[in-house]
Fold:
Amino acid sequence: MDESASGRILGKIGLAILAIALADLVFLNWWTLKNDKLVTGVVTALNSRQDKGDDKSPADSGQAQAVEPEPSPTSLPTPQTEKTSTVSDTLKTSTVVQNAQKEIFISLGSGSTKSNDWAELAGLQVTIDFSKYSGIDSMVFSGSVWVDGGNGRAWGELYNSDDKTLLIESRISSPTGTATLMTSGNIPVPAGAKTYKVYAKTDLTDYAAHVDNARIKITLK
Structure:
């Protein structure tokens, strides 16, 4: 009797397990079928949207091309005209001044040198035609003479370029470091026209000799 009851119980348990397994199988089949339909619907919707997007893309690209601004032409730099300047050398011209006291001042200019031998000061020259002046009483040479730092002595003198001689009577000098007006003794007055240049020198070659505002003064009778 006990074995028969146990067999029945086991049989019922087996049937219950089989029923549950069948129910699970049916549920799984139903769930799979439902998901397949859902996936199919999603794929169809995506394909439909993609097709609509492809239909609009040509129009959109056309609009993009129409809206895109055309590049503006690059302006070329304006060529600049090169400016040229002409420099001309001008010769110094002497200034002749005559006052009421019958004194004629002929300006020669200014210059300097570091030579310890007589050297020409460039541009300081003048040609005087003495035949144009009647009754000359005297002629002297003057200028503000100084040497750099007051070292040594600065010298100045007239040179007659026609006779190629230095006029010792016209010699002036100064040992000071500041411009000091110096005047020579009387210079012999020649006949006709003569060209005079200013020469200068320094005792020490490291210190330049300066002759500023050099001039010749002619006094009439």
Notes: Confidence is low (pLDDT under 50) at residues 57-67, 74-93. The CA atoms of residues 37 and 143 lie 123 Å apart. The first helix runs from residue 2 to 67.
